[in-house]
Amino acid sequence: MAQRTTLQEFESIFPKLEATLLAHAQKYNLPAEHLAWYKQSLEINAVGGKCNRGMSVPDSVSILLGRALTEEEYFKAATLGWMTELLQAFFLVSDDIMDSSITRRGKPCWYRHEGVGMIAINDAFMLESAIYTLLKEHFRQHPSYIDLVELFHEVTFQTEIGQLADLLTAPEDKVNLDNFSMSKYQFIVIYKTAYYSFYLPVALALHMLELGNPANLKTAESILIPMGEYFQIQDDYLDNFGLPEHIGKIGTDIMDNKCSWLVNQALQIVTPEQRKVLEDNYGRKNKDNEAAVKTLFNELKLEQRYLDYEESVVTDLRKQIAAIDESSGLKKGVFEAFLAKIYKRSK
Ligand code: GPP
Ligand code: MG
Ligand code: MG
Ligand code: MG
Fold first, then answer.
1. Does pLDDT of 1 surpass 80?
2. Does any ligand 1 atom lie closer than 6 A to the CB of residue 101?
3. What distance lies between CA 304 and its chain's CA centroid?
4. Mutate which of 102, 105, 192, 345 to test ligand 1's pocket (most atoms within 8 Å of Cβ)?
5. Please, what is the Cα angle at 222 between 337 and 57, to 5 degrees?
6. pLDDT tens-digit readout, 70-128
7. What is the ipTM of this complex?
8. Partners of 104 in the beta sheet?
9. In its keyword annotation, does this UniProt entry include Magnesium (predicted)?
10. Which end of the chain has fewer CB within 10 Å, C or N?
């Protein structure tokens, strides 16, 4: 089995892509001080994460080929990987404004940097544009170029409808617990997270190798979407039970009135008195109200409930992976590698 890529190896590709992006902006005579702003936004927002999504592209390509990649193949696959990181950067810069978040990756959110503020909205758009600049530069001649372009467009739209549902299910001014349900939850997380975080990197790897036929894409989707749902449930769990120093962000789901996995689980098991505690404290922008909800989550033993869920979902995913037919070019290892990266994650 070929070696998995390292963060260091993956990050070593970025300067070359950044140079392409800056050269592209320079063609439009973007003044030097504005170019420096774009450079800063790229470096702060696209670099510095775990790069799980991005690194999954070269890893998947290597597993699909069953060997280590040549330098040229690695560069191509890592370039597609960096596009998923640019898409993620575009989403996170925007999401942090919408969620009124404080920190990201252990530093202030981009919109909270000195002198940035709402310019962050335009920076987010430019992070998205960077994807298509790189695609054109490096994949214009690839037989699957239009599939790659359409894949990014479709996954972006899927994420946007998920984000829309996330926001509309969490109105700031009126808390109504009847609004939440596990079926609404599933819609939100499948669209806002699973497609771009799980399906996208593997679909990119399949297209790079011209294995992106409808049957392979469908099989990949049928496993990666439930896996992505599990990943967002972890994110919701960590929002409350994770350590901010460790996860690099401060949880906001309770104060933001989010239709999170934890509140949905709580609603299934609360007594009428406990439900009253939720009614009176959930979704309020106040530390004391938030603390009351956190205490209730502990009383309801939601941490243990999450750990039980995790074991059962991982058992199911492993069964589904074991049943994959590899004759069409798909490889179980692609999915096993992805699952291994997230199982029992604590950040
Ligand atoms: C994660 O939700 C979802 C996204 C980052 C997608 C945002 C989509 C847009 C179209 C902007 P989250 O708010 O739980 O993430 P986090 O906990 O990292 O803030
Ligand atoms: Mg958020
Ligand atoms: Mg959000
Ligand atoms: Mg979250």
1. no
2. yes
3. 25
4. 192
5. 40
6. 999 999 999 999 999 999 999 999 999 999 999 999 999 999 999 999 999 999 999 99
7. 0.97
8. 107
9. yes
10. N
Beta-bridge partners for 107: 104
List the catalytic residues: 50, 90, 95, 99, 104, 166, 192, 231, 235-236
Mean pLDDT of the chain: 96
| 222: its two tokens | 């049928």
* pTM over the 0.80 mark: yes
Cα 119 from chain centroid (whole Å): 23
- Give tens-digit pLDDT for 12-56: 999 999 999 999 999 999 999 999 999 999 999 999 999 999 999
